[in-house]
Amino acid sequence: MILILSPDVDAKSTEYQEMLDHLGQLPGVTARVHQVHGREQTLTEVYLIGNTAALDEGDMAALPCVERVVRVSSDYRILGRHKDDRRAAHFTYNGVDFSQDSLHVFAGLCAVDTPEHVDMAMKAVADAGLTCTRMGAYKPRTNPYAFQGHGKDCLPWVFESAGHHGIKVVAMEVTHDQHVDEIHEALEAAGHPTGVMLQIGTRNTQNFELLKHVGRQKDYPVLLKRGFGITLEESLNAAEYLASEGNSRVIFCLRGMKTHLGDPHRNFVDFAHVPVVKRLTRMPVCIDPSHSVGSRAGSPDGIMDMMHTTAQGVIAGANMILLDIHPAPNKALVDGPQALRLEELPWFLEDVRLARETYERRRDLARAFHAEHNSKR
């Protein structure tokens, strides 16, 4: 059960404390408070976990500060869509709105290599009108001898470049809880010139202790990649791990499934699951065409496979795109063969714009159809 409190409720008020005291006396029930910060107001939600079946919705709605009650109706208690659940599916971070209606492109370096390449990529992103990027400082690799990333040593010049070019959010993978601390310390030392979205990679989707640690911190939103060898349900439960610890600012990323059935692509593209995730949960959905396809190969029409798959995901309603770019792909230390050249970014973005326009027209068509036929019932 979820209690939605009145907007901008005062946590120091007598009424708020009376509500918490009452909830603390409920047998077999644990109350977890979570705040959702929007541009104009802060919403507070209280998750009741445990034996909630016997709780009366009317009694809970009558508690001080409670505006309405949501009875959980799916396995994804916090992030799921529930019956009569009118909560908005969005959050704002560092001035950027993320929702199931928005679309953001995070183009950048899969792995940070040199300050010069970082700055060139940041400039290309900014010149293209984007305010978000991806920069890999920590790189988990299958081969123990492959480049593992510069780690915390590169964070100062990555954040400095982001601030210089007006980049508001940098998506950055973490593989250990100490990486979160290192990012936090580097941001503070730099004066917070930008923001960071923590990324949980596909190899760590079921690293439950890492999920708990990242879920307990409230400073940064989280991008969770689907596990490459597990079911969609298992990956969605991994996202619920994050939210159950208090951080519901989660974006779910589809990045392809590891199977030879997808050959010659690097992974089997799973972007048909975009609307499925949006139906089952309130999370914005990201697609990662770079790691799904894994190459710059194209068809006779002159369009790269990576752009075709991106269009499929965008037309299906994707809300975020992770894209590898690099000033010199042949010199990239990680995944160079799949990186777009900087001059190709405007072409890619225009192709995305066309796909997004198609999605919006399809959405409007569906709304008009349902409105017309519902009125006749």
Structure description:
The protein has 377 residues and is α/β, with parallel strands linked by helices. The protein has 2 domains: 88 residues, Alpha-Beta Plaits (2-Layer Sandwich), CATH 3.30.70; 263 residues, Aldolase class I (TIM Barrel). The chain is built from 11 helices and 15 strands. The strands form 3 sheets. Strands 7, 8, 9, 10, 11, 12, 13, 14 and 15 form a 9-stranded parallel β-sheet that branches. Helix 6 crosses helix 7. The longest helix is centred in the last third of the chain and has 31 residues. The protein is globular, with a radius of gyration of 22 Å.
Write the layout of secondary structure elements.
Layout: E1 2-5, H1 14-24, E2 29-37, E3 42-50, H2 57-61, E4 66-70, E5 90-93, E6 96-99, E7 104-108, H3 115-127, E8 132-134, H4 155-164, E9 169-173, H5 177-190, E10 195-200, H6 208-216, E11 222-225, H7 232-244, E12 250-254, H8 274-280, E13 285-287, H9 289-293, H10 305-315, E14 320-326, E15 340-341, H11 345-375
Parallel strand pairs: 7-14, 8-9, 9-10, 10-11, 11-12, 12-13, 13-14, 14-15
Antiparallel strand pairs: 1-3, 1-4, 2-3, 5-6
Pfam families: DAHP_snth_FXD, DAHP_synth_1
Domain DAHP synthetase I/KDSA: 101-348
GO molecular function: transferase activity
Task: Report a brief summary of the structure.
This protein is of the alpha/beta class and 377 residues long. The chain has eleven helices and 15 strands. It has helices at 14-24, 57-61, 115-127, 155-164, 177-190, 208-216, 232-244, 274-280, 289-293, 305-315, 345-375, and strands at residues 2-5, 29-37, 42-50, 66-70, 90-93, 96-99, 104-108, 132-134, 169-173, 195-200, 222-225, 250-254, 285-287, 320-326, 340-341.
